[in-house]
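HOLO CASE FILE
Compound: alpha-D-ribofuranose
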Amino acid sequence: MKKIILDVDPGHDDAVAIILAEAEENIDVLGITVVSGNNSLENTLNNTLKICTHLKIDTPVYSGMDMPMVRDRFLSTESIGNVHGETGLDGPVFGEITKKPEDTHAVNYIIDTIKNSKEKITVVATGPLSNIGMSLRLEPKIIENIEEIVIMGGAYGTGNVTPSAEFNIIADPEAAHVVFSSGLPIVMMGLDLTRQAKATKEVVDKIGTVGNKASKLIVDLMEFFTKTQKDFFGWEAPPVHDPTTIAYLIDPSMFEFVECNVQISLEHGMTYGRTVCDMHHATELPRNTKVATKIDFDKFWNLVYENVKKY
Ligand code: RIB
Ligand code: CA
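Model generated. Tokens follow.
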């Protein structure tokens, strides 16, 4: 049983990551922490509460950073357009939100939970790394009790905000630097990997045959996401980035990796926010990151399908 803290910025693909994780019997989601990114913190928090209310997920939810650690606010609505819509989770119709967030700030929750845990905790981040970076700066001792950090973010090829940078990293590059320079083992699901996990019509239709609330939610999410990802990026089917982090925790055998040094470019200009991945080991720098390069498409979507059936 892996104990995880899941840090999100819903976001259509964050929603699928939450659905996948919460249905998995080998994962114990201790808490869901929320960060601004795909939209304002108010909206990403509301979206998290909508998902949890809709699917009767009782995991505690904690509101976190609304601003990056250093740079000015950088929301995907401005940077890569409204791929997630005005609310950050457009498409599905949700009822009244009944789930309430906890009073504790996400950063304090992350620190206290990791410090007091009897076993190591895995941190999964599918949004900008502001909550994680702040936690590591405020209480570096938590490093000793973190199993690994699994992130959706970065790219060793082209970005999706600039040619260099992927959104989750460039939204808070300094926080990403804190994480990648922490010495913690990192697993990086970058765009080169997540763009292999597209929700094709066949995939969505098969999930739709499940016929429960979770499957209907995914179908409605993907209907909207398919349109915006085509409008903004020309994709025939939307890359569903975030649940690849959860799939790794459940079945790492569906991935291939290169273990290498990854650093975050903080120079302002065209490389700002780039994950500089030393894939061919040109340097002697520590190989701090497992960079995912390949995913078994059928295994991945079959895992999502099987877990959706558990709702
Ligand atoms: O670049 C893709 C990432 O940015 C995903 O996590 C998406 O949800 C957005 O946060
Ligand atoms: Ca996200």
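CASE NOTES: The two ends are 19 Å apart (CA to CA). The mean pLDDT is 97.
CLOSED: yes
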